[in-house]
């Protein structure tokens, strides 16, 4: 581990970098109350998937299916964060961050999804929280980051309306256990990805395919997002509660009316589908009439149950989407256009102006009190050379996206936080271990950690 103890060597390195690469902003430009943090997810880093009473999740089952995960990778060890959390958390303040967003593994607390509590799992997250507090780190908990207990999937998972009660009980357990220590809570991580990738295209766990799955899953996720918020607010005095959405600025490929309407349909799915019901605006059927079919799954009183007055909304932005009308996609009548532009190792377009556009778009909602960028980052093919990881592309990515965030903030958008994805290289779902998003490089064979130069850049920005 590279030390950040203000040694002469470290100061020389950072001073040299400051001379070679000057930012157009400083930390103070974002305001004194701005939340600077980094983020992880339980399944992607913890490992120990069969340890100390943890039950199986849908991802434990999914990784065993041939051809689903690149290179047949799995997360049985991942970053061994279950055992190395103390070392890992020390990177957070060393890199200048004051907040740490992490998720709780539902099946580590409730191996069957409901019922008997696994005390060893409960105690593990107490240790995580206590370590954060001892280091002066403010913990932010995500209740659900995609790892549904397999026992609940066997009962239908997110297709089963009973999940509203299952999730409320799980949220109740978490908030009763940790609410006296943790005030910052996020309910769901990217529900659109759960519905689309997990239950419609089959690219993510649980690997179900078919458009018939999409609408009930969307509705149950939207109900749980609000119900989870109510549980947190009831159990945690002075809670700061939000939820997260993966959002992208959507642009029509041309100025034709058909392309504009196609972009509107994609925007309805990517950006409006979950925020508008929570604001009492209903589902965005105006732009995407297919969503009218969701009425089949609405029970009396659901319109009111969908509403919740969140303290903040977490936006997770990585790329923009350019859309054109398509004759070959009969539901969407739209498809993405791959423009000629720089891309990350995930194939995502690097479009920092998209951060500005999506913040401005969400800033227009009167019901949103505050916006936190709860994820932003980039994967590149990092390599260790002479004991270091030099990643100027990632450094430039962060600089440019932060510049656009600051531009939106200066124009009045109520954005008050930024969380880097991710603290560590990790298991990147269906892409396995090839994409590296971390500020800290992980050698998966030895589990050695090495701070990347992008991490040093953040230390320089945030500590000076």
From TrEMBL:
Q: Which InterPro entries match?
A: GH, GH_1_N_CS, Glyco_hydro_1, Glyco_hydro_1_AS, Glyco_hydro_1_beta-glucosidase
NCBIfam families in UniProt: BGL (TIGR03356)
> What keywords were assigned to this record?
Carbohydrate metabolism, Cellulose degradation, Glycosidase, Hydrolase, Polysaccharide degradation
> Which family is annotated?
Belongs to the glycosyl hydrolase 1 family.
Q: Which Pfam families match?
A: Glyco_hydro_1
Q: Which GO terms describe its cellular component?
A: cytosol
User: Which class of enzymes does this protein belong to?
Assistant: hydrolase
Where does the record place the catalytic residues? Answer: 190 (proton donor), 375 (nucleophile)
Q: Which residues bind substrate?
A: 44, 145, 189, 318, 421, 428-429
* Protein name as it appears in the record: Beta-glucosidase
For this protein, the Enzyme Commission number is 3.2.1.21
Single GO molecular function: beta-glucosidase activity
Against PANTHER family, the record matches this protein to: GLYCOSYL HYDROLASE, LP05116P
Catalytic activity reads: Hydrolysis of terminal, non-reducing beta-D-glucosyl residues with release of beta-D-glucose
